[in-house]
Amino acid sequence: MDGALLTLWIMRLAFLALIYLFLIGVVRVLIRDLRAASREPATELGRLIVLASPSGEPAVGAVFALDAVTTIGRDVNNAVVIEDPFASSEHCALTFRGRSWYVEDLASTNGTFLNGSQVGGTAPMSFGDEIQVGEVRLRLERGRR
Amino acid sequence: MSAARQMALPALRWRALRPRARWRESVLLGLLAVTLVVGSASLGATERALAGHPPTFAAADPRALSLYLGMLFAVHLAQVLAGRRTDQVLLPAVGMLGGIGLLLMQRLPQDLVSQQIFGRTLVLGQLQLAWLVLALAVIGGLAVAVRSDRWLRLYKYTWAAAGIALLLLTLILGVDVNGARLSLRLGPLTGQPSELLKVMLVIFLAGYLSENRQLLVEQDTRLGPIRLPPLPYLAPMVAMWATALGIVVIERDLGAALLFFAVFLLLLYVATGRTSAIVLGLILFAVGAVLAYQLVGHVRTRVDIWLDPFADPGGAGYQVVQALHAFARGGIVGTGLGGGLPMVGGRLPIPELHTDFPFAALGEELGLAGILAILGVYLVVIERGLRIAAAAADDFRAILAAGLSLVVGVQAFIIAAGNLKLIPLTGITLPFISYGGSSLLTNAVVVGLLLAISDKGVEPPPPPGSRRRLSPRRLTGLLQRGAGQ
After folding, report:
1. pLDDT digits (tens, 9 = 90+) for B203-247
2. Which of B97, B214, B396 should be substituted to probe chain A, the one whose Cβ sees the most A Cβ atoms within 10 Å?
3. Between the CA of residue B101 and those of A12, B131, B189, B345, what are the distances in Å?
4. Where are the domains of chain B?
5. CA B148, CA B92: separation in Å to the nearest integer?
6. Which of A76, B204, B231, B297 is most deeply packed, by most CB within 10 A?
7. Which residue, among B415, B417, B408, has the nearest Cα to B440 in the 3D structure?
8. pLDDT digit string (tens) for B408-429?
9. H/E stretch holding A132
10. Looking at the complex, does the CB of residue A31 fall below 8 Å from at least one CB of chain B?
């Protein structure tokens, strides 16, 4: 009977130990995953993706990582340069204040549009929103980590 | 025309097979298989020893276990063949919980539940296995087939309305079980719609909060020294609170009410980051709790039992007292699967053990070490959900992923804490472990959706145009396009 009891004990403890082994395996994957995430370059605050660009500059699908203040326009000194006949040289600026993004129209000739409606002054933006500068459409997305 | 078809259907797109290995998942699933086989062998040996035979190394029910493990690997294989880049930890974690639940259900007296299906009588262990296999099929189906979240995003009010309709239907046509009207009978099957309701609620909240996040974050209503979110946008919060109270009063479903309100508050915080909303919610909760205690007899009984279960240990407090004894018997490493007290005086030591108290049963048979590990697995599920949320491309998906994982996590916490007498006991299920088809299938939908959102190859969020409210003009346009198809 002693041998039988011992077998039962060993199996019980082996089951518990294996559950923990499984948990350790999972946690190792999680830690590796978190390390990989933190090794990547510093967090972007957001990114702009070009959805439509009739003139081809910037190209459709191009991605711009955003700083806290990003200016957009035709002038080469802008962070995001848009070669579009309908864009002003200093067209608009995207700013990250507090917890959210804002788009500010810099008195452009043809206006800046947020989800199809014209921006007068400054308007809050959320991830997934679309802005239109000249004939170029851009979408704001969460930054990669 | 193709756009209309995408709107109309949960964009299912079949591409040529593009296999992609998922090493982490296969390693974890292998580890899981070994663990469950040893657990099953331990259960079988204990049962044989109790019956007077010498223990041998053989699984308790090898066919059931191999069917379950086979289904897990089939879901894994389906994702590999379809080349999905979904989360690789969720499936093994959920598989572990389901496997432990299956072992527990095989170990309990089998005549607890029996059901006639196609002329065959299935009992507890077999039924749980059948539900688990169905649940895994749902997980695999959603993970492989869902390539777009448009059908969730676009119809959030429809989902909310469907949820409320389900709730009302339960009220009118429901069947009373143990004094709570929670079940809906459909032919031979009974289901608990409040389980499904929680998923619909999260989908609605994700849609609502992602659309109104800016307003909730930016504007203030000043109330003396406190700054609150704008009042019009708080109306849903108050409505939510009233709904939760309504569920408590009319359906007498304390657990679901607690779960809904907790998840709502957590999601409000996730979306806005405002502590003032949480404080206000907690105040509302306190007021609601006191009101419910004063006015609803059902609630008062539960709280009184919680405060002093030993006042009536053989009657009202019986379940809770027996659960506490079970935890005490279990000690650190437990009595081993199958070694706990099966029956006391011809009945189960804890009534409703298989649905409401599996945590206590596991506490007895696997001990403190076992239940800590199980809580660890729930934490892993929450961590994965929040990671998926953090990596999501836009607000809707982020809030949806956070909400789905929190629904599972909060539910596990509420029932585990209830079993341990940390909070008043509420009758909800322990996700993935408790017996029950509604619970298993709903949680499978949750995991399937989480996997689908986590896929790196999933369709990008739609342009904001489709987030616009549905105007009559747009609706007729959509209908015309649909008709033209």
Report:
1. 988 888 888 777 776 666 666 666 666 667 667 667 766 776 677
2. B214
3. 16, 12, 21, 25
4. 153-295
5. 24
6. B204
7. B408
8. 999 999 999 999 999 998 888 8
9. strand A130-133
10. no
